[in-house]
Amino acid sequence: MTLAQSIDVLQRTPAILHSLLDGVGDGWARGTEGPATFSPFDVVGHLIDGEETDWIPRARIILAQGPTRRFEPYDRFRHRSRNTQRTLASLLTEFAQLRSANLVLVQSWNLTEQQLALEGEHPSLGAVTLRQLLATWVVHDLGHVAQVARVMAKQYKDEVGAWIPYLPVLTDHETPRS
Amino acid sequence: MTLAQSIDVLQRTPAILHSLLDGVGDGWARGTEGPATFSPFDVVGHLIDGEETDWIPRARIILAQGPTRRFEPYDRFRHRSRNTQRTLASLLTEFAQLRSANLVLVQSWNLTEQQLALEGEHPSLGAVTLRQLLATWVVHDLGHVAQVARVMAKQYKDEVGAWIPYLPVLTDHETPRS
Lengths: 178, 178
Description:
The structure is a homodimer.
Chain A: H1 3-10, H2 13-21, H3 26-30, H4 40-64, H5 78-82, H6 88-108, H7 113-116, E1 119-122, E2 126-129, H8 130-154
């Protein structure tokens, strides 16, 4: 992992989600994979939560190397109550603004290899480095992009007739994993 | 499925892939999930093959309702020899042009419900309708968007340390399915 490679992907995510979702009908935006799974609307809200409460606050804890390096637990469902009155368009715009500001901030840190190797304490996973946190941010983005595409695909599961076995995206995560 | 819903997604795919891939380094563009799996570069080539040899030729066979309604088998690996000298940027542009022209064509057909219910014969799956073919085109796109994001994510599998169990995208399709 290099920081430049990671930022190259992280800066793409708002445009990717905009291309996938801006102006789609509610059937695409609000469809899920079943009870207790995220719709594309939920995913954008969840990514906003990450920008506000996860990646940057945790990076700051690691960089500070204070007496307590333990991260706050992350609330995967904060977005559910936060965004009840919001439109998808406004969430996409908000996410793009938060992401842009966070990447300006990370770049302003001019992180060294020594800083990337500093550790924090994940509340359930234990010791993790800043390098691993930043790589996880990238993978988390890409995982949720894949999820949005998969959830949208599943809205047509009953429409493809005999083609189902050729379309593995329709049966991925039949038991929810994310 | 409505034709308008389907076209809304189909017309997004070139911009989604552009956002994901335009200008990325070779590590992101050429990485795979293992032997005999597609890189993001391969996926764009495969989608071009679909525009040229799959969706529209098969729709024409169905609409013609001639004595033979059996589709030509589709070559999932045509792109491998076709695109050896090509850049990813040129493939993204070519895909966007082909997709745009194909959607103009499909809209020019002004398909009726009766036409959408016409059948063709898939060489291994048997009878399928034009409605199912068009829905499959949409799901196929979204499945390959999910694949590109997943394959990119896996390039960082060794970088996330203890976070692996929280990132299911890293272990999806450990046995290749698409």
